Amino acid sequence: MPRPLDLHPDRLFPADPGTRAIARALYAGVRALPIVSPHGHTDPAWFATNAPFSDPASLLIIPDHYVLRMLYSQGVPLGALGVRSRDGSAVESDPRAVWRLFASHYHLFRGTPSRMWFDWVLGEAFGITVQLDAETADHCYEVIDAALKTEAFRPRALFERFGIEVIATTESPLDSLEHHAAIRASGWSGRVVTAYRPDPVVDPETPGFAENVARFAASAGEDATRYAGYLAAHRFHRARFRAAGATSTDHGHPTARTADLSSEDCEALYRRVLAGASAEDAELFRAQILTEMATMSIEDGMVMQLHPGVHRSHNRALLERFGRDKGGDIPVSCEYVAALGALLDRHGNNPDLTLILFTLDEDVYSRELAPLAGHYPALRLGPPWWFHDSPEGMRRFRERTTETAGFYNTVGFNDDTRAFLSIPARHDVARRMDCTWLAQLVAEHRLGEEEAHDLARALAYDLAKAAYRL
Amino acid sequence: MPRPLDLHPDRLFPADPGTRAIARALYAGVRALPIVSPHGHTDPAWFATNAPFSDPASLLIIPDHYVLRMLYSQGVPLGALGVRSRDGSAVESDPRAVWRLFASHYHLFRGTPSRMWFDWVLGEAFGITVQLDAETADHCYEVIDAALKTEAFRPRALFERFGIEVIATTESPLDSLEHHAAIRASGWSGRVVTAYRPDPVVDPETPGFAENVARFAASAGEDATRYAGYLAAHRFHRARFRAAGATSTDHGHPTARTADLSSEDCEALYRRVLAGASAEDAELFRAQILTEMATMSIEDGMVMQLHPGVHRSHNRALLERFGRDKGGDIPVSCEYVAALGALLDRHGNNPDLTLILFTLDEDVYSRELAPLAGHYPALRLGPPWWFHDSPEGMRRFRERTTETAGFYNTVGFNDDTRAFLSIPARHDVARRMDCTWLAQLVAEHRLGEEEAHDLARALAYDLAKAAYRL
Amino acid sequence: MPRPLDLHPDRLFPADPGTRAIARALYAGVRALPIVSPHGHTDPAWFATNAPFSDPASLLIIPDHYVLRMLYSQGVPLGALGVRSRDGSAVESDPRAVWRLFASHYHLFRGTPSRMWFDWVLGEAFGITVQLDAETADHCYEVIDAALKTEAFRPRALFERFGIEVIATTESPLDSLEHHAAIRASGWSGRVVTAYRPDPVVDPETPGFAENVARFAASAGEDATRYAGYLAAHRFHRARFRAAGATSTDHGHPTARTADLSSEDCEALYRRVLAGASAEDAELFRAQILTEMATMSIEDGMVMQLHPGVHRSHNRALLERFGRDKGGDIPVSCEYVAALGALLDRHGNNPDLTLILFTLDEDVYSRELAPLAGHYPALRLGPPWWFHDSPEGMRRFRERTTETAGFYNTVGFNDDTRAFLSIPARHDVARRMDCTWLAQLVAEHRLGEEEAHDLARALAYDLAKAAYRL
Q: What is the mean pLDDT of chain B?
């Protein structure tokens, strides 16, 4: 007999009954607040075309790198999961077979956030009442597949049902933003904005960098051969993104290094990186552009986000066969105090700048990030990111940052996902864990209950809107 | 209506009722023990002159870098807080205006130790019964201002009321120690001792280093041009400090590096640093002097403290305008195992030396510091320091060090503060958090209740007296 | 009056009554499972000869580096503890005197795992009912001494009484494995296997390295002057170890660095290290051999273990006087992501390889190890090791790895000890702490109770058997 799916109303709340009661009361005040999703990777084409999602596996499994990595780690080949290979070699093409394979390995996710998110999608989004496993796989597949064919599961209907007030996607300056234009032209009331992610024209180690820069400058009517032209092209595209609703930029760099070079040095560096950069020049160029972006953010008001510290595509064989974003990215140690020095010397005392820092290196929470954000007016702390977007990750974040940076130097929650159906589940985990943390402070008489209610709302809603200027 | 100030008798105790009861019982046994404050930064002039403190803002806000940094991080200019600028530009001079600005931002401190300390000062030191906010600001100001004009709030009266058995201040060898002499000459029974902090004559990167060394040697009657004279001057001043009650030295270095060079190399290095040191020579000189200080500590019995790992005055613009200690110091990663090698090779096995290690890099608690202190007879672990002098910081310290270093290789609590009125609050937080940790061990049957009572007393009182030889 | 020894049945379980009840139920299902000890340092001679242990101090104190380090850190000389010096200078030779000295310092172990293990040995192994201290020292000594003279305390009887299903010892390829042969020849049913630890012929910085390699190759009938002969000798000895039951290899390296050099570079490097290696060549050789060992593991099926990141014998004076393993080993920061690159590029996607990673640098749990093991099919995470084989260490391990690597990329518990009598206590602590962690997940509705029972068994028994192929 299948086991019932248990989405317990008290999930993630502290076991101690007194503390749990406080957490429940706090959560009741924020559970139904609209979702502000200021940073993520949903596809704007979904909302532009409002076409139905094709099938359960293509929607929920094949594009989810959290799912792929866990199955792969236990010997499940990516091809058997329907992940398309670059060499065109055969992979599983039956979504039901992919789904069954996933279901038969679902126990691997015990104790992980993927399990919590997925259970929510099954139970709350699709109304499934049994636990997913090999036996219930087909039943679940059929329920989901049928639902996806209905109007209620079209992207816009889900957007509205999920209570999303605003969602940001992420595009590069090489993107036409046509989907965002189509959304606005459609008259649909959903607010979908873009974010300016210039990595392909900022990172000289991107394949095709020089061509990217040439297109980037040409489309802006600027001279790509000179650094001034390159900067002007950024200004042009930033304005274009602002017009498409963007309130933020995003920067995914190997490190947090920043630089503040003279004009002459910038010009010479720019020429070198266009001609083919050394590793050190590439690093220095990325570092300089972060400072340039901060300067432009002060001009145009766009909030800046920095996501450093990942060794991308650590598994080279997998990269070659299946491409990027298949679960082979691994965090590395990441230093911020010296790295951010040049940018902070230039702009750190300017309250008009908001630079939101993320990390995968939790060591820096209490040592570097909380002290920096608890001092510089320009800095804020982003929520726990990626591997740390999880109950324990959130607990560590609050435990290690609150005492030095407080709550008001943090910016609420980001779901940072392309897994659209899991977005409410992710915000719900964050709201529950923040209420749990606040409830503990109340239970230990470190915070008043009224204050905790204010804070619960701030963490769930207000801070994200304010920090991202949404 | 103003909200009542809640200094709950169970604050910081665990929420679980059984564990809380144990914590309460442990705390009852240590709550009223005298305060031993073996490391801090109060001004000996207070106790020498016993003059009244001037006003609430000058006493409680303007000199508190924890307070300044949080307000500054949220866009409050330091000038508006009455912090004097070096260029003499206008700053707020009305203490009541400073106080109101602080009160209207008091919510920023939710969840921080500053909030706990400050609430204690309001409620316990001044008998205020309402929470501080914009509305109650004037009331609180008036209560405090009136109290400060009374005899009961003179420094010596507070010292006695706070139950301070002994307090150490910190002076450089360039200090005359006149205030300590005045205290002793006054016949007052309060025990205020100094500590030998030679950084200005040890760190070649200190502005005016060569002049400092010249004065330092001259006042000792030694030849500043030779290394032997320099060392003899240390011996002279250490003896002078011992005579003023000092039982410890303190060393605030960028890193924990130590060295043990030959006499010839020392002599040559000394000449180079006097002439203007390179960064590497400066580092090497500091490293060598740590080992020399250890040698002298074995001779004269002074306990040695090492506080490494801070990037001082990271915010250069702020340093230029307002000077040091305004909240712009940021911790950095700090290695101990290799760094301490030279000193430990020389003196680590000598139980006559006590070297107390502090850190702002919590990563090293379980990896480096607990293993080192759980092995070398000369090493002890200082309590959680500065940013980590907080409930969560204390919890992490015990969780990560106890299993390897035990309790008896730690040295009790240091308040490390110049915020005199908060001293009892800081010791109280430490006593509560240690009782909470012990109660959890008892509740989980990892420690007997009788043993926990012994340990609670040791952590609150005995270990500090013993380790600092007070 | 002596205090009663308290081995509370609920020890280590959470204080919250509801969560404790869940933990108790989970533990009831795994408490009595057989012990699988896949990695440790017991002496096979014990089981081969089955000779009685000599006396309480020689069995329980003198060889225990956890005990020695704590006593030494508080000023107890190793000689007074009966540790033999290399220079033959006099040390305490009366085991009762050693025991009394230990007993009078037993309070130093409060809050440490040594205390928990030792209490178990006193209470459960020897039936002692009083706490050990200076007063009860003689009583405890006599009870233990008398027991050790009985048949019931011979090694094989204890092995059976402890419910050990299989235990692995660790030998170098220079070992004859005669004790393992004798065990098998004896007809005794206990399963004692060896593990292949080739450090003395892999680490060019081992004293006598070239001689070791010469013996190693000669005993295999291979040409020690060529790299191919050296590798063939590994294959020979690995087969010899397999025949003695080995299912695993173990590698204790300063770092996790791996390399994958060309044949020519290997040959040249091999010649250089035989002639006397530079530090960099030694590191590169160790790195290359890790990859060679992985290749051979794929051939012969032996599971590979890597234990990096210790500064061995940090205390040089102690090393000179008393030799290795006296408590002077100190962990250092250890990087895995870049270091393992070469090996993982070569073999990381091969599910036939199992490489079990250990660390003493807990920072890498969430940042590096869980992401790596949650992706590469060849990787698994070893349990918390050495200083972290403790309740808090186990808690941190699960809190920081589960959400990214899940449970099934971990391998159950290793006791890693030569302290034979403490083995059941160590496994019991691990079982209790895993049940505590699972109970918390159940209480917070992050895991079903039925699933938790499956996992409790997996963590206590199944995963170790499977991962180590036992």
A: 97
